[in-house]
Amino acid sequence: MARLLAFDDVHQAFGDEDVLRGISVGMDRTDVEVVIGPSGSGKSTLLRCVNRLTEFDAGDIRLDGESVTAMDVDALRRRVGMVFQGFNLFAHRTARGNVTLGLTEVRDIPRGEARRIADENLARVGLSAQADSYPAELSGGQKQRVGIARALAMEPELLLFDEPTSALDPELIGEVLEVMRGLAEEGMTMLVVSHEMGFARSVADTVTFLDDGVVAERGPPEQLFEHPERDRTREFLGELDT
To answer: What per-residue confidence (pLDDT) applies to 103?
Structure first.
């Protein structure tokens, strides 16, 4: 049986800079994988290659056995949702309007049904009372939860999170992580780039430490955090503790 997501010797460069240098990892349905690493290590690029926001140069990425490069991009993005660091909400649309847009424009769902699905997913992230609010009226944590609801509404097989809490004030981070914990408990397959080590420790099935475009170490969180095998991993984790 094919893994839900598989990277096979993936390379990506921007000009003379090699950002990904032979990534080969995979994950199964219901897995939660958290990718950690220093700034510039290729974490966000890795994520963006999955749904082809960035086109990789060599190797292959397969979704349920099918190369993503062989898929229609819109069809791929219906199956792979993404939650962005900077929210990416439309300022002129309400929370509900932001969630319904993909349903009506991409999935061709009638407006009334799209509204029902939007309200259901806004409730799922604790935002029923803010359905008619515009982004300017929402906190950063609420904006990010709208982004999660928008991704969930498309019923993806895989959900990508690109540093979902890095743009948030510290007091707002917890509400987003709590929603993500709930999704993990529901069995949502998630590939998460994050610097929230507590979340990685408590929720991830697997943690991947990416350094200079390669997988420096990978394993269950208790192994990687408590008994790292490589000096570079110990050095990185030590820097976080200081």
So the answer is: 94
Confidence tier at 241 by pLDDT (50, 70, 90): low
**Single pTM value for the model:** 0.95
- Provide mean pLDDT across the span 186-213: 96
Q: Judge whether 72 and 182 are in contact, CB under 8 Å.
A: no
Task: Say if CB 28 and CB 20 are below 8 A apart.
Answer: no
CB 178 within 8 A of CB 184: no
Q: How do beta strands 5-14 and 17-23 pair?
A: antiparallel
% of the chain residues with pLDDT over 70: 99
- Residue among 163, 157, 204 at smallest CA distance from 181: 204
Instruction: Give the span between the Cα atoms of 34 and 128, in whole angstroms.
Output: 29
Residue 162 half-sphere exposure, CB side, CA atoms within 13 Å?
23
Residue 166 near residue 195, CB atoms below 8 Å: yes
Report in angstroms the alpha-carbon separations of 32 from 77, 141, 168, 183, 189: 19, 21, 22, 10, 6
Which helix (H) or strand (E) segment holds residue 101: the answer is: helix 95-105
The single-letter DSSP state of residue 49 is H
- Strand, helix or coil at 180? helix
Distance CA 26, CA 22 (A): 13
What's the token pair of residue 239?
A: 């820097």
Element of type H or E holding 219? strand 214-219
First to last CA, the chain: 44
Q: Which residues contact 13 (CB under 8 A, 6 or more apart)?
A: 19, 57
